[in-house]
């Protein structure tokens, strides 16, 4: 590990810390310049006075209420709650990365530009794309950016007036149709087959001269790889549509195949999922997009480019969709992802995916006798079960999720995807041991038995958490925030 820390330390030292710059290079704004006099307080604000230990106990108590992957198993499907190696945190805290300001002159930020440039190069290989932009701040932001590129491309070809439709399979992540609507397109839903993959006949019926593109989540939210993906790409390309790949589930395919190889034109990746940076609670994230060569003129600006030995910013791309994020994206997340990629290497990333898929299939295999399995086949990095069998005995999936809390587990994603009744969506990730997977499987099996023998213990759960079951209707308006 130390060699990687040294390598990254060297890169960070190419940056000059903001406090070491001449005064003239440091952007400063005085309060008086920024606000008109009438907004400046006359009296100091009446803030609560607390001592340091009071403050410390307050925040420590809050942090103890939190549950994270450092506390325990977190099999939240679609979210890839893998362990985040702490070397990423060490590197993100290097002075050269933490104590800089994005408005410093670019010559004093060469280390950051080198890191972002090299991260883009790595992501090109991982995604099979020709160019990458790190600007999008999250997966959904990347989706929107990609759709704006689809829009700009059709506009350049004078086809935007007719190409209004984005096709989205019903097994897509929920952000896909939402992003398409925000970008101004009409969404057409494509149904899935019994085997959980896109119905090609239905797709053929929907494509036409009004198709702007297809957005595909792959593996889809059932954890199933779209085996007809090459044919789908052909069907959409044939009518002049573009292909967008939701690559947030890259954890299943890293180093094995790429969206580029599958014929896709645009992809987003979720660095905060597959590339191990802490996420949850709304951010920060990083959702870079990659595109094939013919779409590079549309990428956001400024682009980070190399001119001789120097890294420079270039905004001279008249077809660009413009700047979509202040400065350079969420730089701290990108530092962590770059550190992760350097420490894993290409073969390490492949091993991540192989283990993630193995773990999911192991758990699926152990649980299938006890829960309904709507798609009983080899899955990728996650899988879905249904609580229909338990529902017939009066226990809902939400009860099972709450019972899991009694055993110290975060619950899986439930009631999503919408196409599975009483759905449980489980993603164990590659960073868990066989012991953890077995303990979790044993608890899930025990709960299935409780449902048959003593359903109240499940419907009344949780019993051992500090806050008991809340009234779900009032929980949002009258949250219970005190320990009992
Ligand atoms: C998480 C996820 C997204 C959205 O990513 P955010 O960073 O939460 O905006 C999109 N698609 C899939 C498949 C995801 O799992």
Automatic annotation (TrEMBL):
Domain called Glycine dehydrogenase C-terminal: residue spans: 353-453
EC annotation from Swiss-Prot or TrEMBL: 1.4.4.2
Keyword terms, alphabetized: Oxidoreductase, Pyridoxal phosphate
Swiss-Prot/TrEMBL catalytic activity: N(6)-[(R)-lipoyl]-L-lysyl-[glycine-cleavage complex H protein] + glycine + H(+) = N(6)-[(R)-S(8)-aminomethyldihydrolipoyl]-L-lysyl-[glycine-cleavage complex H protein] + CO2
Cofactor: pyridoxal 5'-phosphate
Annotated Glycine cleavage system P-protein N-terminal domain residues: 43-293
Gene3D superfamilies per the UniProt record, alphabetical: 6.20.440.10, Aspartate Aminotransferase, domain 1, Type I PLP-dependent aspartate aminotransferase-like (Major domain)
A single GO molecular function term of this UniProt record: pyridoxal phosphate binding
GO cellular component, as recorded: cytosol; glycine cleavage complex
Pfam families per the UniProt record, alphabetical: GcvP2_C, GDC-P
Gene Ontology terms: biological process: glycine decarboxylation via glycine cleavage system
Complexes and interactors: The glycine cleavage system is composed of four proteins: P, T, L and H. In this organism, the P 'protein' is a heterodimer of two subunits.
Protein family per UniProt: Belongs to the GcvP family. C-terminal subunit subfamily.
Protein name (Swiss-Prot/TrEMBL): Probable glycine dehydrogenase (decarboxylating) subunit 2
Gene name for this UniProt entry: gcvPB
């Amino acid at each position: 590990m130390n060699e990687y820390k040294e390598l990254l330390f060297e890169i960070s030292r190419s940056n000059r810390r903001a406090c070491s710059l001449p005064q003239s290079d440091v952007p400063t704004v005085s309060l008086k310049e920024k606000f008109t006099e009438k907004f400046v307080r006359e009296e100091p604000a009446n803030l609560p006075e607390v001592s340091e230990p009071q403050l410390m106990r307050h925040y420590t108590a809050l942090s103890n209420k939190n549950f994270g992957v450092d506390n325990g198993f977190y099999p939240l499907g679609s979210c890839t709650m893998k362990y985040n190696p702490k070397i990423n945190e060490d590197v993100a805290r290097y002075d050269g990365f933490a104590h800089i300001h994005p408005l410093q002159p670019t010559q004093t930020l060469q280390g950051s530009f080198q890191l972002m440039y090299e991260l883009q190069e790595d992501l090109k290989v991982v995604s099979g794309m020709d160019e990458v932009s790190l600007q999008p701040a999250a997966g959904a932001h990347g989706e929107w950016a990609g759709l704006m590129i689809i829009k700009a491309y059709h506009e350049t070809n004078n086809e935007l007036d007719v190409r209004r439709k984005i096709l989205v399979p019903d097994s897509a992540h929920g952000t896909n149709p939402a992003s398409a609507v925000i970008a101004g397109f009409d969404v057409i839903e494509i149904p899935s087959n019994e085997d959980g993959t896109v119905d090609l006949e239905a797709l053929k019926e929907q494509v036409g001269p009004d198709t702007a593109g297809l957005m595909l989540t792959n593996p889809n939210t059932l954890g199933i790889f779209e085996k007809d993906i090459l044919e789908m790409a052909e069907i959409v390309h044939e009518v002049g549509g573009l292909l967008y790949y939701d690559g947030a589930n890259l954890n299943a395919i890293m180093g094995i195949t790429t969206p580029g190889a599958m014929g896709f034109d645009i992809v987003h990746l979720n660095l905060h999922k597959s590339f191990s940076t802490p996420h949850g609670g709304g951010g920060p994230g990083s959702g870079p997009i990659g595109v094939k060569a013919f779409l590079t003129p549309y990428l956001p600006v400024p682009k980070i480019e190399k001119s001789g030995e120097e890294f420079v910013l270039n905004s001279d791309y008249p077809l660009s969709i413009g700047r979509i994020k202040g400065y350079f994206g969420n730089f701290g997340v990108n530092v962590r992802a770059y550190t992760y990629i350097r420490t894993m290497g290409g073969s390490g990333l492949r091993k991540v995916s192989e283990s993630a898929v193995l773990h999911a299939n192991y758990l699926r295999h152990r649980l299938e006798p006890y829960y309904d399995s709507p798609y009983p086949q080899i899955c990728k990095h996650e899988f879905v079960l249904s609580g229909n069998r338990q529902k017939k005995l009066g226990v809902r999936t939400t009860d099972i999720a709450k019972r899991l809390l009694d055993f110290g587990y975060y619950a899986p994603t439930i009631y999503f995807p919408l196409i599975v009744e009483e759905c449980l969506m489980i993603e164990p990730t590659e960073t868990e041991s066989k012991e953890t997977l077995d303990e979790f499987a044993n608890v899930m099996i025990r709960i299935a038995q409780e449902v048959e023998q003593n359903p109240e213990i499940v419907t009344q759960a949780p019993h051992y958490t500090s806050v008991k079951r809340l009234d779900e209707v009032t929980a949002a308006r009258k949250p219970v925030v005190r320990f009992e």
